[in-house]
Amino acid sequence: MAATQQSDPFDAPPDPTSGPSGPRAGFWARFAAAFLDGILLGIPYAIVGAVASVGAAYAVYLLLAIAYFTYFEGGPTGQTLGKKALNIRVIDLAGGGSIGMTRAFIRYIGRIVSSIPLLLGYFWMLWDGEKQTWHDKMAGAVVVPTSSYPVG
Fold it and tell me: Of residues 131 and 6, which shows the higher confidence score?
């Protein structure tokens, strides 16, 4: 008599937005948050660019972007305004808490590195087990939904 094999619940296909250590924010949520943050940072760039040189506008943009991402992603919530609108946040991969200002600054510098080879560092999350971009890896961080990792 042949034994019928029952399906094992652990054989279910993995959730595409989940990394090995928990749920992760998807590509499109992260893209939309980055888009919103880009609009917010683009406003002062456009204003300065209208009254000064492009170089001055870029310098203002760079300083504001460093301050913006370092302050908000390194803060206790790990959320920029774009991330807050999309209900996602940056947390420490190992401990789940805030990454702090230093690692948030490293993560911002990592964004530049991620964009150099045709944005490959950003797309890396599509096949990475923890859904990390290069700048996430540099900072030891992950981006997660607030529904699974509430702020507070």
Answer: 131
Mean of the pLDDT values across residues 85-96?
96
DSSP for 42-89, written as a single string: HHHHHHHHHHS-HHHHHHHHHHHHHHHHHHHHHSSS---HHHHHTTEE
Closest C-alpha to 104, from 50, 140, 149:
140
- Say what the pLDDT of residue 98 is: 97
Where residue 152 falls among pLDDT bands split at 50, 70, 90? confident
- 81-97 average pLDDT score: 96
Residue 98 identity (one-letter amino acid):
S
- Apex 79 CA angle, 115 and 98, nearest 5: 95
Helix/strand/coil for 142: strand
Q: Is 61 exposed, middle or buried (0-12, 13-18, 19+ CB in 10 A)?
A: middle
